[in-house]
């Protein structure tokens, strides 16, 4: 295909609503795309952590490990009353709707289900992160304007 024909094809694509044109024959393959590429964003709910028990190696170490196991068991029981609000996307964490505004929530605040607790900016789009259940904010785990990854804990909360 010569340059004249190629220019004609490009003009055809730009003058119509066509966003993609592909031509293939035995000798050549031409692909013309225009406009911004579509972005597909998938959000997956974070999964609960898997806890596995390690069997004791010998009888003597098992007896020595027993006193240590009791505090380890009480710590998860204490942590069981707390849950976290996690980031559903990668982006930048913001506690406030604007730099001069008050934070959405502070430690000790009671939050209703569906209430916005923060923003996560991704690709210049501000996503409101909402509480999934009524809770009390125990601790803010991220600094304002800090980067967050998918599944990062943003707040430690106590369900009510």
TrEMBL record:
Gene3D superfamilies: 2.40.50.100. GO terms for molecular function: acetyl-CoA carboxylase activity. Keywords: Biotin, Fatty acid biosynthesis, Fatty acid metabolism, Lipid biosynthesis, Lipid metabolism. InterPro entries: AcCoA_biotinCC, Biotin_BS, Biotin_Carboxyl_Carrier/Decarb, Biotin_lipoyl, Single_hybrid_motif. This is Biotin carboxyl carrier protein of acetyl-CoA carboxylase. Coiled coil: none annotated. Residues 62-75 have a biased composition (Low complexity).
